[in-house]
Write a structure and sequence with these properties.
The complex is a heterodimer of chains A (393) and B (103). Chain A has 14 helices and twelve strands. With 393 residues, chain A is an alpha/beta fold. Chain A has a nine-stranded mixed sheet with strand order 8-7-6-5-4-3-2-9-10. The two termini of chain B are 16 Å apart. Classes of the chains: A alpha/beta (393), B alpha+beta (103). Chain B: This is PqqA binding protein.
């Protein structure tokens, strides 16, 4: 049996045929739906763009229902209701019901702090298949500080318990960085105590909000090595009991990650305002025009034919050193958003790659930041961010 | 609650897919799939047949009997294959089993 993994909240896999997907761009198996950017939490590494969509721009209930029906029709199998905080939308139960009725497998990716026992029960009755709850740490002091939300950690523990009482599978999503990596062994234990099926140990990826907070978040090389050791040990010990997915930060790697499985190959997401995007950070690349589900085009057309999806598809767009690189179809030059953020041109090699002329500089800078004393966060919000008070950091 | 963890599949087990693992025919790609949290598994034809027989009433031995009769194949070999396949699924967390109530 082949196991096509859909890694945490980004790259979603296509069910690969024998001949692979090198020349075909089949409809992805799973699609991420960021139904709102509103969120009571203010995590400094939020994967949403720095320019957040205001609620007035959000798709209506009717528009999202039409999107869900269309996704099921073109062969998408799973949808992830995400955000922002998806439970901030009052119509979530209705949307989950609509998705389930259309035959879609539904995942909820939530901070959990807005959920009540009753609401979670309603979601389960509507056909929800899986709940993923994010945790910022192991105890409320640090966890609530990272989230910028008092009482959040305690509420998350409570909702995790309800999730299992309702017989829903639970994934604990733990976003890791310099200020909480020392809690990883306890986070593994917490996932076990909460009776989770899966644990995602996701090191922060440095674009958008996280890039602004890099100096406060970047781990040391030693911390990362220890993190990898802990994950490997736990995977072995907990085989059959807890599945652990592991996302490493790419700064310290020699080879870049195959971001999103390659641009426009296996993944798309839909933003609160209805833009169809090759990745949830794609709007950070200026000069690209993204089509909306509000346009006259079908989602399948946008996936196959839109300019933005085709711009960095395959290898034709590449410059050196990617162009002649033997790994060009293995990692597709890494992450376009990271290349844009760090070099100003999305068509450049991702500096996470050792072959990038900027790799050395950026690695050294990360190392310096990791050793630095800056722990203050710039919290994520609609106002462009708020700096943490010096006394709290 | 869902079934117990750390299932050890044997001839007497009565396995069944849990609520969060859905066996479904994918009309677009013309293949059977198992939908699970953040994963899509692609079972082969035999696995699909085994899982369709695993309804929580039949035990693994019954399933092997049926397949041995259908394919006129040695029961022991089939039983071993069925157990291995189900154990693999159980280890991934996508199988549960029905147990007699003890109280």
């Amino acid at each position: 049996m082949s196991d096509v993994t859909i890694p945490p909240s980004d790259s979603l896999a296509v069910l690969e045929k024998q001949r692979s997907t090198a020349e075909t761009f089949g409809i992805p198996l799973a699609v991420l739906l960021e139904i709102t950017h509103r969120c009571p939490l203010q995590c400094p590494y939020c994967s949403n763009p720095v320019e957040l969509d205001r609620s007035a721009k959000e798709l209506t209930t009717g528009e999202w229902k039409k999107v869900l029906s269309e996704l099921a029709e073109i062969g998408v199998l799973q949808v992830h209701f995400s955000g922002g905080e998806p439970t901030a939308r009052k119509d979530l139960v209705e949307l989950v019901k609509h998705a389930s009725d259309a035959g879609l497998y539904t995942n909820l990716i939530t901070s959990a702090v807005l959920l009540t026992r009753e609401k979670l029960g309603d979601l389960a009755d509507a056909g929800l298949c899986h709940v993923q709850i994010s945790f910022q740490g192991i105890e409320e002091g640090l966890a609530d500080r990272v989230a910028g939300y008092k009482g959040g950690h305690r509420k998350k523990l409570e909702v995790a318990k309800w999730t299992r009482e309702l017989d829903l599978p639970l994934t604990v999503n733990a976003v890791m960085h310099r200020q909480n990596l020392h809690q990883l062994p306890d986070i593994v234990q917490m996932a076990l105590d909460l009776d989770a099926d899966r644990l995602e140990v996701a090191n922060v990826q440095y674009y958008g909000w996280a890039l602004k907070n890099r100096a406060a978040l970047m781990p040391t090389v030693a911390q990362l090595d220890e993190c990898t050791r802990i994950v490997e040990e736990a995977r072995e010990r907990l085989k059959g009991r807890l599945t652990i997915d592991y996302v490493v930060p790419d700064y310290y790697a020699l080879r870049p990650k195959k971001c999103m499985g390659g641009w426009g190959r296996q993944f798309f997401n839909i933003s609160p305002a209805g833009k169809v995007l090759p990745c949830h950070a794609a709007e950070s690349i200026t000069g690209l025009d993204f089509e909306s589900v509000r346009s006259n085009h079908s989602i399948a057309w946008i996936w196959q034919n839109s300019e933005a999806f085709n711009r960095y598809r395959g290898t034709g767009w590449m410059k050196e050193p990617c162009k002649s690189c033997e790994f060009r179809e293995i990692d597709f030059g890494g992450c376009r958003c990271q290349a844009f953020a760090l070099t100003g041109d999305a068509a450049n090699t991702d500096p996470a790659c050792a072959l990038s002329p900027l790799h050395e500089t950026i690695f050294k800078q990360a190392e310096r930041e990791a050793e630095g004393e800056t722990n203050r966060f710039l919290y994520r919000n609609f106002a462009g961010g708020t700096l943490e008070s010096e006394n709290d950091a | 609650m869902a079934g117990p963890r750390n299932i050890s599949v044997s001839e007497a087990s009565r396995p069944v897919l849990p609520r969060h693992a859905k066996l479904k025919y994918d009309e677009t790609r013309k293949v059977w799939v198992i939908l699970a949290p953040e994963r899509v598994l692609a079972p082969d034809d035999i696995a699909v047949e085994v899982l369709q027989l695993c309804n929580g009433e039949r035990n693994v031995g019954d399933v092997a009997d049926q397949l041995a009769a259908k394919y006129a194949a040695p029961r022991e070999a089939i039983l071993a294959d069925v157990i291995a396949m189900l154990q693999d699924l159980a280890d991934k967390g996508f199988l549960t089993e029905i147990r007699e109530k003890t109280s």
